[in-house]
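Give me the fold.
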Amino acid sequence: MRNEIGTLMYNIMDLLDPCLVIEQSIKELKIVFGEDSDIIIYIYDEETDSFSTGCETSAIEIPRGLGLFYDAFRYKKEICKNGSIYLPFTSNRGEILGVMQITRNKNLTLREKNIFREATKVIASIYQNAKVHLAMKETFESFIDTLCSAIDARDFVTSGHSKRTALYAIELCHLLNLDSVTCERIKYASLLHDIGKIGISERLLQKNGRLDETQFLEVKKHTIIGKQILEKTKLPKEFKDIPDIVLSHHERIDGSGYPHSLKGNEIPYESRMLAICDVFDALTSHRQYRSEMKFEPALQLMKNEEGQFDPEILDAFTQIPLEKLKEIHSSYRI
């Protein structure tokens, strides 16, 4: 029994999406009990006071009070009937999450019943951890969205810029075949890349015309201010590099960027991605001192700027379909 439970735990313990925990658990249990076994995990939704047997589009909602699984849920006890076993699915704190059911033509042996009981405890614990992680992620994303709103409030001329930049970055991630954690990291860095503008005078941010040299030097400080702000934020460990990504998003491949004149691979990879998405949205958006550019001229201008962008990443960016660029361009505008 230890082998089966150990394998199950190993294969699901790192999953952070509750839906994936359920789906992978069913696959693992079918390996243990055989493909002819029918395994269902009923998840209780307190808000709708109903159960579901899947996630997203595959979910089937079932009202309270229907089926033997509901008796197991209501009385919080195991029910065995008609070749099926129904087990309450509870968290470590005793909170009932739902019910697990197994049905098989061949009756389960005592050993198999014990495996199913132990598996239910393991799955419930990992599922609850995934739910907590999801809630924390949603809180984090809400915090990010609030910061984006604060940036827009400070600089209404560029309202929506950070969110569009993030959407371009997500498309670029897919074309570069980056892993999901890296994609999330660049998404959040894109959303926060101008957070430092909170520390810049509104008079400069909203100036009707080009900045003079002294004013531009002041605005350039937003990268350093941004890093300082984000370093004081307790970011999840997978996002600990975001302050440095934000700091370096105005660096250039040839070393002529700011704030530290980094060159080539000295610039974080995600910063090189962000620089391209940032500039493209800026060029194709209206500014106080110029009109927005069309997509093709903007891309050509960026290609002509030798030494500013990573050429491989820029080449990938140009592969984003025109329709997708148009869709993103039209989003989050006043």
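The mean pLDDT is 87.
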